[in-house]
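Quick question, first post here. What does this chain look like in 3D?
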Amino acid sequence: MSITAGIDVGSTYTKTVLLDADNKIVARHQLNTGFKLAEVAEKCFQACLAEARLTSDDIAYIIATGYGRHQVAFKDLIVTDITASARGCHLLFPETRTVLDVGGQTMKAIRLEPDGKVKSFRQNDKCAAGTGAFLEKTARYMGYETDDIGGLLDTSRDPAEISGVCAVFAESEVINQLSLGTPPADIMQGAIESLTTRAVQLMKRVKAEPGHTLIGGIMRFGTMSRAVDSRIKDDIQLPGGGEDRALPQFVTALGAAWLAHHRLRKLAGEGSTPTPAAA
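> Answer (accepted):
Ran it through. Tokens below.
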């Protein structure tokens, strides 16, 4: 049975997924990206192999994606994260027509063709206020770590008003809210609401269609997906269904691994795109 690998070298985290020919995830692993992109890609890949009790010789094809994709020395092919994200969502939810991907440094809205190909997209990468970095900065200003965000959000009762116009100015907003006695949990929830507003605006720019799938690291916080769900007139689709909170972070790597199987079929002369099945 052939196994492929998708490696997503993101700005904040690097993710690897091993996928078998039946579109089942054999193993997955994640590491902080840091600044040694080639090294972390190799480490993440090797950790995934160890988890699956495989060697590199067992992997039939490797596709790298993400902003650091060119640094993966052992790749067979590269694809953009836009393409990989679209295919990963189509694999999990074939009815997907709009993808919202909120990561550490970027927010993307992607509109798909029925076959999972990219129809159009928009990306907010000019300011951290539209990304996960905005939440992390807000947490740090209040003396919390990134791992504390989920717990804070779960205890919020009354979201504070956070404009989120600029992450640089977030500190002054946080200080002002704290001086008014606003609980940190409500400030974090206010930051989520601000992020959601930007997300909805971005999806409008891409002319979003029903069939929304939400991915990216921020979706591990259930309150973010619920906030988006409350703003759009459509039921959202979340990889892992909220139970596997880490899965939304791996969708881009999953899409790359799935494309690797498609590439193998083309090389073998089959050429047809396989019918999606849940991973």
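Residues 42 and 133 are 25 Å apart (CA to CA).
The two ends are 16 Å apart (CA to CA).
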